[in-house]
Amino acid sequence: MEPDKADVKKKLEEIAGRELVVAPEQLSRFRFPVSAYDSADGLVAWQHIFLPGMSCEYARLLDVSGASYSGADGKRVIRLSDVVCLGDYRLLSEPVNVLATARIAKPFFVTNTHSLISPTDPHSSDIEITFFVWDPNGNAAPDIVFDWRCRAIDTAAPILRGAAPPLAERSR
Hints:
- This protein is mainly beta.
- The chain folds into two domains: 1-31, no CATH class; 60-158.
- The chain has two helices and seven strands; from the N terminus they run H-E-E-E-H-E-E-E-E.
- It is globular, with a radius of gyration of 20 Å.
- The protein starts with a helix and ends in an 18-residue tail after the last strand.
């Protein structure tokens, strides 16, 4: 008889001394992936308050994806620093785009909110994302696996291809 995966997870959490945010199916290994990410050159469009049009400038963009599941209250909170090796010098900024999709054939809804977190160090920041999973009747749905993705501007990371001049002003 195979041991109950939920019991195995509880025992491993007791040994680790913390909650393991992992689907029970992933417990067959003692190491599991929590995210995939990259940092790539991109463009940021800036709208001026007093000048007409917008300007576009090269920037570094952080793109992170992962999987998680809803807790007993239908909620899960993730900080990017918990799933990405951000380093000591990261300034993440808006616009932040977060997308999540339930990994189940039945209809469930995943909504989210996010906050920029600025610790005491003025040279780094983090993003905290709260995911909410709902069943079709609007009730919180526990233990639903979902995939997520977050993209943000990383203003502290250097542009890999070197300093690029701002793109020409554009007007609408």
